[in-house]
Amino acid sequence: MRAVLQRVSRAKVLVNDKIVGKIGQGILVLLGVSDEDSEKEAIYLLEKTLNLRIFEDAEAKMNLSLLDIKGELLVVSQFTLYGDARKGRRPSFIKAAALEKANKLYEFFVFEARKQIGKVETGRFQAMMKVELVNNGPVTILLDSEKLF
Q: Which of 118, 29, 105, 113 is nearest to 69 (CA)?
């Protein structure tokens, strides 16, 4: 499982020009599921996301987590995180999970997040979405459950 985390002051996702998810200060998570992932990888990435110290403390040091600041989470499914562009000019998505499995683990990630923090918003699985954000910093972190980066 892979995630791109972006520390945001606000973010929203639109489907057919209608807002389906919107947050204030927090983290936008672009979440990709591979064909080898399970709930174990989802829990690992969620715990990393919620506890990663990427928010500034009173001394302007990145020392606080999303849980510490009581921030919000916007989770957007993005299978293209498993695009492999090492060969040719068109990415291969062969490592991305099939739709049913990807949706199940995406929904599991969101369900578990909602058990731990106040506001968790989402995009719409398999929809064409427009994501707008104000990346605060900018701060962008890449996570991979296989710890490849």
A: 118
Q: What is the pTM of this model?
A: 0.96
**12-70 pLDDT tens trace:** 999 999 999 999 999 999 999 999 999 999 999 999 999 999 999 999 999 999 999 99
CATH code of domain 2-144: 3.50.80.10
Spatial distance between the Cα atoms of 125 and 48, rounded to a whole number of angstroms: 22
Q: Which amino acid makes up residue 102?
A: A
- The tokens 């009581």 sit on which residue? 70
Residue 41 to residue 63: CA distance in whole angstroms = 25
> Each residue of 4-35: b (16+ CB within 10 Å) or e?
bbbbbebbbbbeeeeebbebebbbbbbbbbbe
Instruction: Kindly list the domain boundaries of the chain, sorted by start residue.
Output: 2-144
Q: Could you give the residue numbers annotated as active site?
A: 78-80
Q: Which residue has the tokens 């998810």?
A: 21
